[in-house]
Specification:
It comes from Rhodococcus opacus M213. The mean pLDDT is 94. Helix 1 packs across helix 10 and helix 3 packs across helix 4. This protein is an alpha/beta fold. The strands form two sheets. Strands 1, 2, 3, 4, 5, 12 and 13 form a seven-stranded mixed beta sheet that branches. The protein has a six-stranded parallel beta sheet with strand order 8-7-6-9-10-11, with helices on both faces. The chain contains ten helices and 13 strands. It is globular, with a radius of gyration of 19 Å.
């Protein structure tokens, strides 16, 4: 049992708030949202090792089952949380798990990114994107990032080697060939991304499955496509924690809301263009 200090806000949370239960058809109601949690261990279950009362932990828990992180207390599987990095407070830590695990899996497990390779990361100022830029740099890759011009300085500060203002430039005509594309946008961006990928490159799509017509075109060009659903992974989160400890990864928190104002946080997230992540503070009371 963890006393929740903070819960991260993710796209899945507000999709469910809009009634998007088609993503989780077998889960009974009522449903407590939230999968990203950071807090302090209150009770350790019988036979559970590795943690003790008072430990600060964080993680993405139970997905695709209800995570129940939007609460004062949450029963979490011990195998899905890890020690909170000392350099992060609970608010910052809650911003990291789902987005960080998604970024890492996209870059390492799906794209197989290697040191010295070029990767194009779309929406690089967003929740997954800003962590993907930092993780890719930590892996030794050359990063090309797209975002709005107002985020140029911010994205460059994350380590991007090249920046493309998607409102002013067509990335497919201004970017030299890359080994991998991490797409967090969807729509026509996937098809357009094929034009900048090298033969045997890979397009990793995060918001949705790659459409059949895009897959077919990619195959004709000798390009691989990948899509996936993120899962809890304590081993990977531990690797990301080490990057935090080394100063190579740091989550950005755009706004913090009291837990009781989760709906307001969802509205901000749904509106788009959040820099980094939104987080709920479970230790404060709404005014």
């Amino acid at each position: 049992m963890v006393r929740v200090h903070a819960a991260g806000v993710n796209v899945l949370d507000w999709l469910l708030g809009e009634g998007g239960f088609e993503h989780f058809p077998d889960v009974p109601l009522p449903w407590i949202p939230g999968w990203d949690v950071s807090g302090v261990v209150e009770v350790v279950g019988d036979g559970v090792g590795g943690f003790q009362q008072g430990d600060s932990v964080y993680g993405m828990v139970r997905l695709p089952e209800p995570g129940n992180a939007y609460a004062e207390y949450a029963a979490v599987p011990a195998g899905q949380v890890v020690a909170k990095p000392p350099l992060l407070d609970h608010i910052q830590a809650a911003a990291l798990p789902m987005a960080g695990l998604t970024a890492w899996r996209a870059l390492v497990d799906e794209a197989g990114l290697q040191r010295g390779q070029r990767v194009l990361i779309h929406a690089a100022s967003g929740g997954v994107g800003h962590l993907a830029v930092q993780c890719a740099k930590a892996l030794g890759a050359q990063v090309v990032a797209t975002a709005s011009g107002s985020n140029r300085e911010y994205v460059n500060s994350l380590g991007a080697d090249e920046f493309v203002d998607y409102r002013e430039q067509r990335f497919e005509t201004s970017v030299a060939p890359v080994h991998a594309v991490i797409d967090t946008v969807g729509g026509t961006v996937q098809q357009r991304s094929l034009d900048v990928l090298k033969r045997d490159g890979v397009l990793v799509a995060l918001p949705a499955d790659v459409p059949a017509e895009v897959k077919a075109d990619a195959e004709r060009r000798g390009i691989r496509t990948r899509d996936f659903s993120v899962e809890p992974n304590a081993d990977t989160l531990t690797k990301i924690s080490r990057l935090v400890a080394d100063g190579r990864v740091r989550p950005t928190v755009s706004s913090v809301y009291p837990l009781a104002e989760a709906r307001v946080a969802h509205e901000e997230g749904r509106a788009g263009h959040v820099r980094g992540k939104l987080v709920l503070d479970a230790t404060t009371v709404a005014s």
